[in-house]
Design goal:
five-stranded parallel beta sheet, 5 strands, elongated
Length: about 210
């Protein structure tokens, strides 16, 4: 899913999570966010909202917080950074909860072209390999801003055209007007001149106050 900020990508991931819980009870969700701050934001939001209402458990897995094995085994949703899930999933043969993953959500997947790109590539490749070995399918959901190479990325994730949605930056839920700082400064100077001298010229389309 490629779409502008504030267009509802998080809600889409929530729908994918709800579907997994409904269709595949016992399966786990992994939500990967690039920053610890985003992990904490999802924990707070879903902790008092969706997960609380569903009676499901979740844990945070970051450099600042590492839950014990029991918490990881019992969690329905694990929210983590790429580095942490990379380290955890390397020993997937001896970690049953890794083999129970049914949904992998990668937030800000456009960072695949950045410094963390290789880690994300390894995670996706490893999870696809685990799915092939265990016979338990894993659904991949990538969230991003609008992409120029959405079809290539979708193909790499194993997503066909039916599951690929990429909206241009011009498609926004609320129209956005960009006004430069210089334009604002010019309007402010005109307003000050008009207050000092009623005969001063005003901005086009505006009336001088009487």
């Amino acid at each position: 899913m490629g779409a502008p900020t504030g267009s509802g990508k998080t809600i889409m991931s929530e729908l994918a999570i709800l579907r997994l819980f409904d269709k595949h009870p016992g399966a786990k969700v992994i939500y990967i966010a690039p920053l610890k701050a985003l992990v904490r934001e999802r924990m707070e939001d879903w902790g008092r909202g969706m997960m609380k209402a569903l009676g499901k458990s979740m844990v945070e897995l970051t450099g600042d917080f590492t839950p014990d094995m029991r918490a990881l085994l019992e969690a329905d949703l694990i929210i983590c950074t790429p580095e942490k899930w990379d380290g955890i999933s390397r020993s997937w043969q001896t970690r049953g909860y890794v083999k129970r993953v049914g949904l992998l959500v990668i937030d800000e997947i456009h960072l695949l072209g950045g410094d963390r790109g290789p880690i994300l590539e390894v995670i996706v490749s490893r999870m696809r390999y685990i799915a092939a070995q265990t016979g338990a399918p894993v659904r991949f959901v990538g969230l991003s801003t609008a992409l120029a190479n959405a079809e290539d990325l979708g193909s790499w994730l194993g997503v066909g055209k039916a599951g690929l949605f990429n909206f241009k930056p011009s498609v926004r839920p609320v129209p956005m007007e960009v006004s430069g700082g210089r334009a604002r400064a010019r309007r402010a100077r005109r307003a000050r001149r008009a207050r000092r001298d009623p005969r001063a010229p005003t901005a086009p389309g505006r009336r001088r106050p009487h």
